[in-house]
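Shipment paperwork, digital attachment
Item: protein structure file
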Amino acid sequence: MRSRSLCRLLPLTIALTLSSTLLLRASSDDLLFARLNEYLNALRVQAGIPALAAAVVGPGEVVWEQVYGLQDIDRNIAARYDTPFELDGTTEAIVGSLALRCASDGWLSLDDPVGAFVADSPDAALTLRQLLMHTVPGPNGPVFSYQPERLGPIANAVAGCTDSSFRFGIAGLFARMAMINSVPGADVVKLAPHADGFTVDDISHFSDVLSHLATPYAVDGRGRATASEYTTSTLTPWSGMVSTLQDLEQFDLALKKGVLLRPEWLALAWTPPIGADGERLPHGIGWFVQTYNNERVVWQFGVSDSASSSLLISIPGRGLTLILLANSQGLVRPYPLAEGNVAVSPFARVFLSLFMR
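Attachment content:
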């Protein structure tokens, strides 16, 4: 009888144990996100950022998101999950993905010379791969040279695998990934009807999205914000995209699910070249890549002086990505991220320390 009673109790015991484990895990996750929320908002206030949009995306879904502050101070308009922000240099992560998609589909080779697309480019003898990885030849191997403006020829290369232009190809990518509130350069609304393949309805939609664009701010040393202006409106391979927190969540999920790139091509994007000293250089294709606490971290940043900033950080081994968008330079400008170490940013350190323990 005891044996039979024990058999009856075992499933209940196992169920209770599993339930307790799940509850503990959920409680632990809630605590982590509560801390992340607290730290990010404190850093935002310290940096004088008027509006900050933040999300953590897991392997298959968004696991946390939050918005802070005002996208327009004068009109007292709060930031929202669908508030559009300028991406600045974070544009490169999306452009790099499209370039890899073109290569995977056979429209171009990463080893094509730049001169095949822009004959008079000063980098004509380099390859598309070298441009995308921000390298130049050195006497003993490739050398890291972070000059985003050198990426210009990538626009012509990518245009070759679209139905029209570089801008139209990016807009097509937005459509495929359901990035419904993203704009391929703010000046797209100045195009004549049907120029670059866009319809009147397309232009009208982009205009509506831009009417909600977060107001850019310059912030002085005392944290006082003054409305400023965006200095970039044209889409380039290194700047100009406008997007929202929700749309970048879709981009991240498309990468993780293999919708945008097959796993081997994403692995290529996240494998930087080896430099002259035998060590990996800081940049892959579209992303900075580094090791933190013995794990790989991939990331990209964007900043426009006295206007906007953004930061994407992904931990591939854990399937977690942090997305941050701001309407001032405070998220990025104080920190030398171009040198290839995301841990110099306190915003990044908060995320990495909480989720890489």
